[in-house]
Amino acid sequence: MRALRPVVTGRRILASEIRLPKLVSPMSAALFKRKLKGATITGVSRRGKYILIELNNDRVLAVHLRMTGKFLSLSVGDALPKHAHAIFYLDNDRRLVFCDQRQFGVMRLVSRTRLSKTKGIRELAPEPFADDFSLVYLKETLARSRRTLKTLLLDQTRVLGLGNIYAAEALFRAGVNPFKVAATLSSKRVELLHQAILDVLTEAIADSSTSRVNLEHSNGFSYGEAFERFWQVYEREGEPCIKCGALIRRMVHGGRSTYWCPKCQRR
Ligand SMILES: [Zn+2]
Prior knowledge:
Number of strands: 10
Strand order of the largest sheet: 1-6-7-5
Oligomer: single chain
Helix content: 25-40%
Radius of gyration: 21 Å
Bound molecules: zinc ion
Order of helices and strands: HEHEEEEEEEHHHHHEE
């Protein structure tokens, strides 16, 4: 993001080209291009795994890079790379090119007001460091609940700003079992959990602001691969725990996968 932001902020999109229509579906490529034409990019931010390219026409271009998606900034003279599925012609004679070898990437052009209702974004953390999320608040919330911690943390996404991944990671770092009843968590553990939640979210933010420089393109850049690097239990079923070596377990709980270390996160 640090790499993308200065390259595109303030630039106007003169025209765009969509070579892989499914990238922008369900919107048609024609409508997508029409809505982007002439828009100025006012900023770049991130929500979870979505890169949000903010436009001055009250729309946001939400991009999920998935496995192999990346952006390149090319000058007019540069040859287009392979798998260039979307090309944005900017008003400084440069082109912002989206390449995606495996074609799993997603681009959604949505209005700013509808952004929070967009699938994949609506589930994500709101403001992670809102003052509302204090230790006292967490203690009171947990003390009132007879549900499991995992269920509670996920059900409170609006307040706590946790999604499935963050919840699993925070519980692991705090050494708390996801299936423990919220109200039975000791005061000490609540403190550890509160700190772990803040730590996980801090790392998520730091991770999003570090970008990889793509040396294949002398004046280009790419990023995205770093997104999933810091998960310690999430999607690590059967792999050894980084703290104790026990094998990470997974269970589907409330329709979502829960990952935990049976040793570090005993009940
Ligand atoms: Zn462990």
